[in-house]
Amino acid sequence: MFNKGQLSYIIKPMTLVITIVLLVFLLQTLYTNKVRERTVEKNLDIVSTATNILLILANSEECLAYDDSLIITKANILDIEKIESFNSNYQDIEPECARNYDFGWRVKIEQINKNNIVERKWEFGADSFSDDKLVKNQVEFWIPVAIRYSENDVRLGKMNIKLVDGELEKLAGFFDWSCKMGKMNRMSSLTTEIMISQPATYENGKLCFGQYCRKLLCELIYFDGLDSEGTHELTVNYQEPNKLLVSK
Hints:
By secondary structure, the chain is of the alpha+beta class. It has helices spanning 4-39, 44-59, 80-89, 167-183; strands at 77-79, 104-112, 118-125, 135-150, 153-166, 189-196, 201-203, 206-209, 212-215, 219-221, 230-239, 243-247. Helices cover 32% and strands 35% of the residues. Strands 1-4-5-2-3 form a five-stranded mixed β-sheet. Strands 6-11-12-10 form a four-stranded mixed β-sheet, with helices on one face. Strands 7-8-9 form a three-stranded antiparallel β-sheet, with helices on one face.
């Protein structure tokens, strides 16, 4: 048997979760219809990747998910403190908890009221993408989320992603993957063939195709860029603490 205090302790979180689930269900219906319209002609792989990234961000405790063992149904409940942290720390690069090394992405989270008016907004991820001429594919859509400030203060929101498959993202992804593998001591050397449609440069920690640049995880050394379009073979070797030796 439960006493009144115990019942209150159980019912409050359950009521909150039920409310969130109902609101998310209503928004999910709108989202599903919008995505169907926007992605009917999109490549399935990029759509699937974008969806997976949003779900990881929303439901992984290493990303934005609110962590509370008392809540059984946690779908799409974001922790406001984690949102603020990502907004501060990842203004020009994607967080590694949901990183994809084939595509580049940027996420925008909007807190909305019952009239669908935006009250607050946060953004994080890549701050620049390939020139449109160098983009193979891209997709943009959103999922509904709940933003948790406290046990009794949970707001509605949308989490939108723009995911881009372009030449800048591919080359930067190769360097960043090599950097990650080197840091994890899984691989010291990687080689790839990369095709580019315009020269690539590297300066101030960023890889650039013209005016479009991406921040990299590791510093590139002995890399003076790629001065011509076409196919290039690159070999990278990781060097502690945070460097990649690049040879062509």
